[in-house]
Automatic annotation (TrEMBL):
Top-level taxonomy: Eukaryota, Metazoa, Spiralia, Lophotrochozoa, Platyhelminthes
A Pfam family that the UniProt record links to this protein: Glyco_hydro_35
Domain of life: Eukaryota
Protein name: Beta-galactosidase
Domain Glycoside hydrolase 35 catalytic: from-to ranges: 53-145
Length: 155
């Protein structure tokens, strides 16, 4: 019988192998790394490898973001805080999706009221900010049991 530590090592080894295979299989396309062209209005993002600069919609772009934990702030304050972030010069919001907030017990999913993730993302767009969504399964070291449910299903 394989112990818990051996299982964890096996999962990480398999994950590393899959990542390596994906990188090798996509090597010819790395010249377009970071580029997206299938977006509305022909928007795109790429990295200029000569100047080490982000290029967004044909112009140099410096991404400045701030972290926002929507599940820790009452939804009535979301718009105000996002507007203040924009006024402070931020381009985007870096956010976690804490699954223990949205799934307090197995098989139960809640995305309403204070947990309305769709509404929060709509507000980000309305204010004119970009979003980096960190959906997990593991999102932060300082918060216990945020994604144990997902990780536990691997074993």
């Amino acid at each position: 019988m394989v112990g818990s530590l051996e299982r964890i090592h096996l999962v990480f080894a398999c994950g590393f192998a899959i990542l390596t295979m994906n990188l090798v299989s996509t090597a010819p396309s790395l010249q377009h790394y970071g580029r997206y062209n299938d977006t509305p209005a022909g928007r795109y993002f790429t990295i200029d490898q000569h100047t080490h600069t982000f290029i967004k919609d044909g112009k140099p772009f410096q991404y400045i973001s701030g972290s926002f934990h929507y599940f820790r702030i009452p939804s009535s304050y979301w718009l105000d805080r996002l507007q203040k972030a924009k006024a402070a010069g931020l381009d985007g919001i870096d956010m976690y999706v804490a699954w223990n907030v949205h799934s307090p017990e197995e098989g139960v999913y809640q995305f309403d009221g204070e947990r309305n993730l769709e509404h929060f993302l709509e507000l980000i767009h309305q204010v004119g900010l970009l979003a980096i969504v960190r959906a997990g399964p593991y999102i932060c070291a300082e918060w216990s049991f945020v994604s144990v449910q997902i990780v536990a299903t691997l074993f």
